[in-house]
Specification:
Radius of gyration: 20 Å
Distance between the termini: 60 Å
Low-confidence stretches: none
Strand content: over 45%
Order of helices and strands: EEEEEEEEE
Largest sheet: 5 strands, antiparallel
């Protein structure tokens, strides 16, 4: 049986769409949505059952308002909309032989603000 190297996706298509609306006052509103589909893969070189990640899909979205001349902006975002538990790495505890998986962030959302001081 042929084994792939750990953390190597056989297929990983992604898609993203950005729509920007500009106002006469110079501000803008950007909407962005994207998704990535990953084939199954191993996250550890021991190839144990707990180190296998099934195929998955992760989507993110954001809405950003920018002031004229980009002096400041405010954005609302949501990452991992599907709220999937996706393994990004793993290790085997040497004494007990237990497999531990490292997971990517769960569904995360919030607000970001940025300012330029010049």
């Amino acid at each position: 049986m042929r084994q792939n190297l750990p953390a190597i996706y056989v297929t990983s298509p992604s898609s993203s769409y950005i729509c920007s609306v500009f106002t006469q006052a110079g501000s803008s509103l950007d909407a962005q949505v994207g998704t990535q589909i990953q084939s199954s893969y191993w996250v550890g070189e021991e190839y144990l059952v707990g180190q296998y990640q099934k195929r998955s899909m992760v989507s993110n979205a954001s809405l950003t308002w920018r002031a004229p001349r980009d002096r400041f902006s405010i954005a609302a975002y949501i990452d991992n909309i599907e709220d999937r538990a996706i393994k990004s790495g793993s290790f085997v505890q040497p004494v007990l032989g237990s497999t531990f998986a490292i997971l990517r962030a769960p569904r995360t959302y919030g607000v970001r603000a940025s300012f330029k001081f010049n």
